[in-house]
Structure formats: C-alpha cells, structure tokens
Design brief:
CATH class: Alpha Beta
Bound molecules: zinc ion
Number of domains: 1
CATH architecture: 4-Layer Sandwich
Number of strands: 12
Shape: globular
Strand content: 25-35%
Structural class: alpha/beta
CATH topology: Metallo-beta-lactamase, Chain A
Mean pLDDT: 94
Radius of gyration: 16 Å
Largest sheet: 6 strands, mixed
Distance between the termini: 24 Å
Strand order of the largest sheet: 1-2-3-4-5-6
Number of helices: 5
Length: 206
C-alpha cells in the first residue's frame, strides 16, 4: 500500500491518494485530477466541508466516477457556500496568517458538491485488504471526521495539525462540540500513530 500526499494551491491543503492493487481511495481531493492517472479510483472521502478540502470533488467525480463518502453533518454543509467557505475563501486567505500565500488564490465563490454516502457517529469498511474506520470529530467544523487506516494511520483533517491549536472560531466551529466529542476522540488516537493532517507534514502522535 502507498500513501501519497499532494499539497494544493489552496492554503497548501493536503490531498492523499492511497493505492493498492491498482485501486485508490482519495482523501480531500483538490482540483488537479492528473494525480489519479492509471488507478481505478474506488472512493473519495473528505475530512470536512471546507473549500480547501473539497475543491476537487466534482472534477474527480466527473473524471473517475468515484462516489463521495463523508459524515451526514458534512454532507448537509457541502451545498452551502457559506458553510463550505467557498463564498468567502478569498477573504479568508487574505486574513489568515498561518500559511504564506505567494500569489492570489483562484477561488470559486459558488462552489458546492454532493455526497453519495454518509454516516453518523462512526462507520468502518474493508478496502483491498485494509480497514478504514471513520469517526465524527466535530469542533473545527460540524462535519469534521477522523479516518483511521489499519489503526496505524490517521487522517486528521484540520482537527489535529502539528504544533497548532485546533481552529474552532470559523463559522460552523464549536468549542462545545469539540470539548464533548471532538477532543476526546483526538486524544484517544494512540501514541505512535502516523498522523496525516489537512495541512503541513505528517508526524507521529505523541
Ligand atoms: Zn478547515
């Protein structure tokens, strides 16, 4: 199995292409679809509904006919340009200070997309001899999830970034949900798990 990370032109968000036996699962697809060349794309997942993590859903769906799986709360926000942040993403890029943008970002203020499959709380499934386990971890956004792959790898979206406080103040963010459910589930990720975050490099959970 291979896990390849690609950094996007939208606040350097990470897209992950996980491949095995000529098949692939894509997490947080962005607009450049060439990274999927030669692989059968079985499934897309998004770690949450924010524009920098969903910008390629429609392009990948069109190119590879791959269905999208996310939480029900995420699915409910994918079609809302305020909650998915596409409407104001250019302003957000200007205001944020944690990632250096060299050039203005090409955004799509009316971007929406749709889920094909959803879950509540948690779900798991097998894929090419591997096991995915998905958990809702609300706080950064209503639709945030964490994705375990074979218990050794954890795709954390924006809920766990190395050396950064989890951002809870964006529209749809909730300190209450974070304290009640999101944070306990992040804390429960075992030490030594490889974290594949929504931005920046992979690291080991302490
Ligand atoms: Zn986000």
């Amino acid at each position: 199995m291979k896990i390849k990370a690609y950094s996007s032109d939208l606040l350097s968000s990470n897209m992950y292409v996980i491949s095995e036996n000529g098949h692939a699962v894509v997490i947080d697809p962005f607009r450049d679809i060439t990274k999927g060349e030669g692989l059968t794309i079985d499934l897309m997942m998004v770690t949450h509904e924010h524009y920098d993590h969903i910008s390629g859903v429609n392009a990948w769906k069109e190119a590879y006919n791959a269905p999208l799986l996310c939480s029900e709360a995420c699915a409910a926000n994918l079609g809302d340009t305020v909650k998915n942040q596409s409407r104001h993403f250019d302003v957000f890029c200007e205001l944020q200070s944690w990632i250096k943008q060299d050039k203005p970002v090409d955004t799509e203020p009316d971007y929406t997309c749709k889920a094909d499959m959803t879950f509540n709380d948690k779900t798991e499934f097998e894929w090419q001899g591997h096991v995915f386990r998905l958990y809702e971890i609300p706080g950064h956004s209503q639709g945030s999830i964490g994705i375990y792959l074979d218990d050794e790898n954890f795709f954390s979206g924006d809920s766990l970034l190395e050396g950064k406080e989890t951002e809870l103040r964006l529209p749809g963010g909730s300190r209450k949900q974070w304290k009640e459910l999101g944070e306990p589930r992040i804390k429960a990720v075992p030490p030594g798990t490889v974290i594949f975050p929504g931005h920046f490099n992979s690291f080991l959970k302490e």
